[in-house]
Specification:
This protein has 21 helices and 13 strands. It is an alpha/beta fold. 46% of the residues are buried. The structure holds 6-O-phosphono-beta-D-fructofuranose (F6P). The site of 6-O-phosphono-beta-D-fructofuranose has 14 residues, from loops.
Length: 549
Amino acid sequence: MADATPSLPFASVALSAALSAHAARIKALGYRGLLAADPNRYAPLSVEAEGLLLDFSRQLIDPKALKDLLALAEASQVSEAFERMCRGDRINASEQRAVLHTALRDQSGTALVVAGEDIRALVRQVRDHMRRFVAAVTQGERRGATGSRFTDVIHIGIGGSDLGPVMVVEALKSYTNPALAVHFVSNVDGVQWADVSARLNPATTLVVICSKTFTTLETLTNAKLARAWIVAHLGETAVAAHFAAVSVNHAAMNAFGVADEARFALWDWVGGRYSVWSAIGLTVELAIGSAHFEALLKGAYAMDCHARTAPFGQNLPVLMGLLAVWNRHYLAMTSHAVLPYDQRLHRFPAYLQQLAMESNGKRVRREGSPVDYPTEAVLWGEAGSNGQHSFFQLLHQGTACVSIDLLLPARSSVGLQASQDLAIAHALAQAEAFAMGYTEAEAWAELRAKGVSMEQAHALAPHKVHPGNRPSSLLLCERLDPSTLGRLVALYEHRVFVESVLWDINAFDQWGVELGKRLADALAPAVTGAGPAPSGLQPLMDRLARWRR
Ligand code: F6P
């Protein structure tokens, strides 16, 4: 752990200094010291709200440090920032955009007028459109060009136009309609397209193209493959029946031939990674049905209300955001692992990667000056038990500094409670091991008790040491249903927002993905030999050209 704490953009230098002192004190104590000082840590360091229980008693924190962290959130005006976002201020200043994903799940029925338009009325219109479309497809009123009912949906999109829908469909697989299978195609290399299209019948397949801009190369490439596939099997006139699209780009949807009633509006105030609640979630609604999709939205709305009104000490997203800043800044954690103990959540870490790292992987402050403090940690993860048999070794004994969230539904998502009970045991055991560790003295005593010789015990004990002090939170829920998932996703969205407020960065632009895109566009002709390559790449291009032949 780094000793020198870099500065923060905090309103309160005094609080930041106090937090550095807390960090030094707590590092010296370690988790075992914290537990010895207060064996009842769970009570002050856990919060249950909106059906989610956050147990952060295994974080390297205590109530004194938490008090100052909460004061820091007040000084940073987190509530005011949240209100500015929800009321439609252009808080995405580098793109001059409002940020209104919360309006997509609003259940209040009241108006929200931004730049002369009632945003919530626009959202309701699109929700009605989505519901009608989903009913028409699932009830067989809307059919393919040959008159067959749709049995499959191919969702084409990438980044925020893919990760949210994939993650939700996987998480809610137990709620999906078996008569309408959904498939996802995102990568540009054609592999997913080839695999999916090879096993589907074009006559019974609906293709949903999701691209906010309708200019993203990966999505357009796959959309063209899909169009050619439909046209080759069913003729040009089938395009209108077999495609739906979600975009702000009406001209591009026109050019593609998407039928009027199969186009769904999106707005520039919905960021890609915050868009699963919008018509980008059309495939989700087709898969799980409108009632479950509504439950997802209602869950997210419940979390929005909680984030807006709960006192900071009881406020889940505020607490999680503060813990993220604490771990990153004061304890110098460079990486954050999210480990769901439910296979249904296996794409949740991938979804969170974009949410956290595209939002907060920034190096300048809101007004453009470089930060001199660390921003978002590298976020990654994997479904719990699988991870245990792969990278947990490093989490327990490696030299990397990783903070951890363990997600844990109490009930089985598939009715196999005895199996989920084992998953629960594993998650709790891991959390304990991360925190407590296992000392050399303990290892030694255990080896000797097993009859291992002094010499062997001496040789083996250092290998068995687990240093502990790996900070983790447990996030529990009763079951993974649509409403719970909505609350969980909104919780992480707001956690990311809270971090961005403390770090004074714009969480809603993504200029860092543009340079690579531009370079790829420029290089594409060189790969096929139709254009020159920059001199540094010429040897590789020559080698590739020989292999491509
Ligand atoms: O990867 C950059 C990005 O702009 C993401 O923010 C976005 O989710 C993704 O590309 C897809 O963009 P679009 O929906 O416009 O195709």
